[in-house]
Here is the input.
Amino acid sequence: MRAYFVKRVLQGVVAIVGALLIVFVAQRLSGDPVALMLPMDAGEAEFAAMREALGLDKPLPAQFGIFMVNAVQGDFGDSYQWQAPAMTLLLERLPATLELALAGLVFALLLAVPLGVVSSVHRGGLVDRAAKVFAMLGQAVPGFWIGLLLILFVAVELQWLPAFGRGGLSNLVLPAIALGWYPVAAMTRTLRSSMLDILDSDYVRMERAIGLPERWIVWRYALRNAMVPLVTMIGVYFANMLGGAFVIEVVFAWPGIGRAVVDAVFARDFPVVQAGVVLAALVFVAVNLIVDLSYGLIDPRIRHAKA
Amino acid sequence: MSEAVALPRPLLARLLRRGEGGFPFLAASVLALVLICALLGPWLTPHEAGKIALADAMTPPAWAEGGSAKHLLGTDNLGRDILSRIIAGARVSANVALYAIVISGLIGASLGMAAGYFGGFVDAAISRLIDVQMSVPSIPLAMLFAAVLPPGEAMVIFIIVLSYWTWYARLVRGEVLSLRERDYIKLAKIAGVATPVIFYRHLAPNVLNMLLVLATLQFGSVIVFEAGLSFLGLGIQPPNVSWGGMLADGRNFIDVAWWLITMPGLAIMASCLASNLLGDWLRDTLDPVRRQI
Amino acid sequence: MLRVQDLKTHLFLKRGVLKAVDGVSFELAAGKTLGLIGESGSGKTMTGLSLLGLPPKPAGRIVGGTVSLDGRELIGLDEKTLADEVRGRQIAMISQDPMTSLNPVFTVGAQVAAPIRAHGLGGDSRRDAAHLAVEELQHVRVPAARQRARDYPHQFSGGMRQRVVAAMAIACRPRLLIADEPTSALDVTIQVQLMDLIERIQAETDAGLLFITHDLGIAARVCHRIAVMYAGRIVEAATAEQLYAEPRHPYTQGLLASVPRLGRRDKRLISIPGNPPDPLALPSGCAFHPRCPHATERCRVEAPPTVMAGDDQVACWLHA
Here is the structure.
């Protein structure tokens, strides 16, 4: 387990360094990075100070070194919109984004698990066919448009739920649906096919032969096995949702890092943008690491194989 | 189970039979329509896409109350004809999708081919690059480059290529690796057949099929991606028309004009659905056994 | 105790109807063992599954016959009654492959406790059921049962897993135990141990044992009576002594001519010419006639009736 853990952490570190490299390249790609880092009305003295801080007179590798040293300390410069360190600003907004992504994941699972189970138990039945059509449509519809439609019908027409902002549970419902919408199809399909395999397995036959109620067999004994491939994908889904949250946050005026970064792009507040990208990569890597290490919780074979 | 029979059969059956039945005419027609609109847009639009006519502003679609036959899908807050703008938007969507996919395909396939064929250091380097690329979520990455590059179609294409090439690279690398281990390739090598010939004869046909399937499937996903960027205001800039941009405009009038956000969304959905269906059909036809994409 | 009459289970496949079990009749008394012998595909496993009301879904269906256990008719019971009152409670099955018959993500203790809880025998609490599960594991001689109950199946050897499967099957003291090739996946020494165990359990609980196997050696050792199946029918049934000393049906004769020994694992019975028939296109008349050295014109045209000779039965024109 330890060797495996170390290896995964190292891979994560490589990925983060890669992300930092991309940010660094993007900075230089724009021509004068100082112009990016400072507000448009900055004076000549500020420019000179910034040049020195970034070490722009030094060769590129040294510049990257300085960038990395700062980055490791979480220093991506100050947001000039807010006059505060960019990373600190974003970290304050991270809980909102995580809350949204988590709610999206919960929505997706709440829909996908029953759909996947029922369509495998009643293969070819009404739910199975409906889920197929739903999946096909679902994969073709962008989440932000679902968000707009939800605002239009649920918030504006029916006035059931609030359309904008963060607050109680009622604020969370619509953005969570818009965000969790997309992976439902893939999750349902994954679960359905693993359930079909498992319901046909020797141990399910054995469980039937000793008279366990079908309800237990399907929802307890088979489902836990079928969840293994789904959980292995959850890291990817959750990470994608963090990315998707950037758009959904704008649709619902959700005060998370996504909206902050979009605002920053328009305000040409580059420190916030680059901190946002690095933070997204960090969370992405961390989530995948956590998920990777948690397979063992549901599958004892993995737990013991790595021990 | 018997309730299933009560479902509206024709549409459902047609949708469900994808991949098993014949050529998906509906999906192919939708895609063809998008391409035709992209090519002939200005000659097809009933009105000039950018023409402002404040007198006609906020006309609902023709079938709705207060609608007029002059504007089939209604008009926006400036009186611009929605149908004309959707047709004009098809040009951007198709343009971006085609360029982005061809360039990602070329870059990804070349790198994947090199990684799979040379192995060793080259493979390690390219694989690491793919790993890094895949550990940075694509939307935040897009924002980074949107912040530093001049906005416009070229930037959107660049951003999409940046996120999409890894798919092609992984696909081709995997295929080359597995083919390289096949006996007939080894035999051909031992028999002294030149490397390019081996590539041409054995690798190219397989790989090309799979690339075609992937490209078709991704056509829709790229359209969605572009629409997302443009919706955020980071992609295609006015006065150029894009579906995502139309959604962003319509969002401001969501409580008064439902058609402003439904119509462009339907266009996105139809193109994406069509590309998925056609891609599935191609996969079932070209790679029926493995279905690995 | 158990009386099966004219049981028919057919599989309705796309390519046609497969008559997996086609008119099987036999009886089994408490405490006795009946061997059901045949090549793979002869319908012996399907017969076992049919007794449990579990023909493979969705193709399989029991289309005729009666199965009465202690005077109660089982065919036609609804699914819920079967699950609640019959499976595991009155009839239980020890399945073929111990490596795949245990659920990989639940502890062994939980799996043995499951039937006890499902049939309401463990008192009300989960803890009581777990306690009983440990007792069952001790009963099947799993060493250090208390600790091992918390382990997962992959931490057990094949022989130990088969013991766990046996513990699950006998947890509710069923009247009838079906053992479907319980030893075929195991080493010879483990086979012997396991058979001893099954026999001991049977003696303790006075259950009937339906022993499904293709291994004549093991069948000879444990069975009081043996029924030989071919193409979904019982072609001959007799006491073990009678069957081995004086086989009546040419198919049985062929099987015995392959000189079985304990532990012999041949799947193919080489002394019979030809191959088992295509179950979807059975030969006319007697299904065995293309491979039978004594086949006559009549065998080709007309299926032989089952003739009783005392308690024994045989379906062959030679004995009609």
User: Anything to note?
Assistant: Chain A has a mean pLDDT of 84. The domain at 90-304 of chain A is CATH 1.10.3720.10 (MetI-like fold). The first helix of chain A runs from residue 2 to 29. Chain A has 13 helices and two strands.
